Amino acid sequence: WIILMLSIESSGRYNEVLEKGINLFRRLGFVIPLSPPGPTEIMASLLSTSQMASSFTLSQIVDSRHYPIDDHKRNLFKLYTALIISTYALSSPYLPLLSFEMVQYSLRNTVFTPESAVAFAALGYFKVILAQNYLR
Questions:
Q1: How is 20-45 classified by DSSP, letter by letter?
Q2: Do the beta carbons of residue 82 and residue 46 sit within 8 Å?
Q3: How many Å apart are CA 101 and CA 37, to the nearest integer?
Q4: Full-model pTM
Q5: Which pLDDT value is given to residue 134?
Q6: What is the 3-state secondary structure (H, E, C) of 75-113?
Q7: Start-to-end CA span in the chain (Å)
Q8: How many CB atoms are closer than 10 A to CB 51?
Q9: What gap in Å lies between CA 27 and CA 6, rounded to an integer?
Q10: 115-127 per-position pLDDT tens digit
């Protein structure tokens, strides 16, 4: 799947990547609505993800970097990265929702790798933008 998604994404067929990627993530058990999420769904997901993330200390996250990660989990984050490029290119409302889902997955499974850093960076970005708190 990863090679297919990356090749479709690199050819600029972003709608196809978005459709296939979202369907794949749904089949893997991620909670992604059938229709594009609205502001209420995005803010609810941001809140629940922020609460989950705040239950971890920095040392817990840093210490867990040393746990081995299997190829399935690593590939899942590579797929997310390909999908996130397409959602960004299309200005899709799925972008924040997918990012929050991946942060939650990372926290539940203690997956803190370079591949998961994209999701955490997106969480920070959306926390600032959606909360409109630019001074922190």
A1: HHHHHHHHTT----SSPP-HHHHHHH
A2: no
A3: 13
A4: 0.82
A5: 59
A6: HHHHHHHHHHHHHHHCCCCHHHHHHHHHHHHHHHCCCCC
A7: 39
A8: 9
A9: 19
A10: 788 888 899 888 8
